[in-house]
Automatic annotation (TrEMBL):
InterPro entries: Bromodomain, Bromodomain-like_sf, Rsc/polybromo. Keywords: Bromodomain, Chromatin regulator, Nucleus, Repeat, Transcription, Transcription regulation. One of its GO terms (molecular function) is chromatin binding. One of its GO terms (biological process) is transcription elongation by RNA polymerase II. GO terms for cellular component: RSC-type complex. This is Bromo domain-containing protein. Residues 5-111 form the Bromo domain. It comes from the Eukaryota. The lineage of its organism: Eukaryota, Metazoa, Spiralia, Gnathifera, Rotifera.
Length: 165
């Protein structure tokens, strides 16, 4: 039904705008920090570069027909930000804040499933916490692997002056 599809598109657009324009207590738009991310990174985490602009274009062209598809793309924007930055950075922290804000807004707008039912509603803040732990574990193990693979100067114990002839 076209009217239902129109409502879903309106709901997704509203959800995106409220998330993207969300301001902190100082009146700063949280999504502004994402502009620090490169358009294309050397270590790009996905085949497609997921950005707010890409999602906005998809919304404008009415490509999203389901909340879960929209949410998957939006979460990839947040995940990309975390993969390209370190945990103490503003972008990294803002990606977590915005994802939590999105989850709360989504639940309110969908009236916790009574207005719109979707598998997307199963992803909550608890699940986000588990994902963040998994991401940090991956990041830590990658950092450890990189440290082990780097060449470090080692002191040779069998230098000529210590050899016994």
């Amino acid at each position: 039904d076209d009217s239902v599809q129109n409502l879903v598109c309106e709901l997704l657009t509203c959800l995106f705008i409220q998330t993207f324009n969300y301001e902190d207590q100082d009146g700063q738009c949280i999504s502004d920090s994402f502009s620090e991310l490169p358009e294309q990174a050397e270590n790009e985490p996905f085949d497609i570069v997921y950005t707010f602009d890409m999602i906005r274009q998809n919304l404008d062209q009415r490509r999203y027909r389901r909340l879960d598809a929209f949410q998957t793309d939006l979460f990839k924007v947040f995940e990309r930000a975390r993969k390209l930055t370190l945990p103490p950075s503003k972008v990294y922290q803002d990606s977590i804040k915005l994802e939590k804000i999105y989850i709360r807004l989504r639940d309110e707008i969908c009236q916790h499933g009574s207005l719109l039912r979707s598998p997307a509603l199963l992803f909550n803040e608890d699940r986000l916490q588990h994902e963040l732990v998994r991401e940090r574990t991956e990041k830590d193990s990658l950092a450890n692997t990189n440290n082990q693979n780097s060449i470090s100067p080692t002191k040779s114990s069998d230098s000529d002056e210590n050899k016994v002839y």
